[in-house]
Amino acid sequence: MSELDPKVAYLVDRATRDDDSDEDALIASLEDDSELDAFREQRLQQLHSEFDKARRLRANEHGTYTEIKDEKALMDITTSTKLCVVHFFKPDFNRCRIMDSHLESLAPSHYEARILKINVDNCPFLVTKLGIQVLPCVLSFIDGIGVDRIIGFEGLGRSPDSFTTRELENRLILAEVFARNKVTDEDERQRLQKSKMAQKEDEDDDDWD
A Pfam family in this protein (predicted)? Predict the structure, then answer.
């Protein structure tokens, strides 16, 4: 993915996280920058381009964590969308709920990708075709082609049962379905607080067939 100027990336991420952000004010902050005029103009062009891109993507449900109920609809989305992350889940699996909380936290910032989930009971053909046997299972797609698979919590965090949103974000950046790091310490704090408020349940067996 092409690299944005760091200041432009900061302003775009700030604006797309906050629906009340004033685009004109953010652009003015670049216009008041002390950098050379030529470099400032390049930044302004990038900023306008990224804002336009964000608007187009958000109009097509990017920036949300959406459950798809039909496997044909899911196949249509993954084959017609540049970047997709799909969580195959069962609602009564505790580990799937944990994965949900992380993906729900990531979705608003990472509007560059569609972030979806589907109950495995609603997609028997895909479960068989993709060989899904352990849940949660998170697949990343670029132009309809699978590029990464997270089985359970494998490869996430320092322990088998615990990982942070930033660690999941890093994995999806490596898969090239996310553009750059956007998770903040405040994001992580809010997610943990929300998780603690949820009712604690016993760990489910994550093997599924």
Answer: Thioredoxin
Distance between CA atoms of residues 132 and 86, nearest Å: 12
> What is the helix (H) or strand (E) element at residue 37, kind and residue range?
helix 37-59
Q: Rounded to the nearest 5°, which phi and psi values hold at 77?
A: -70, -45
For residue 119 the two structure tokens come to 């109950």
pTM of the entire predicted model: 0.78
Look up residue 7 and give its amino acid. Answer: K
d(CA 14, CA 60): 20
CA distance 103 to 86: 10
Bridge partners (DSSP) listed for residue 162: 159
Distances (CA, A) of 131 to 91, 128, 144: 19, 5, 17
Question: Which residue(s) pair with 17 in the sheet?
Answer: none
Task: Give me 89's structure tokens.
Answer: 């889940």
To the question of domain 66-180 being in CATH 3.40.50.2300, the answer is no
| Sequence spans of domains, the chain | 6-60, 66-180
pLDDT digits (tens, 9 = 90+) for 158-177: 776 789 999 999 999 999 99
What's the confidence (pLDDT) of residue 58?
A: 76
Q: Is the separation of the CB atoms in 113 and 199 below 8 Å?
A: no
DSSP H or E run through 145: strand 145-151
Residue pLDDT, tens place only, 17-59: 665 455 666 666 655 655 545 567 777 777 777 777 777 787 7
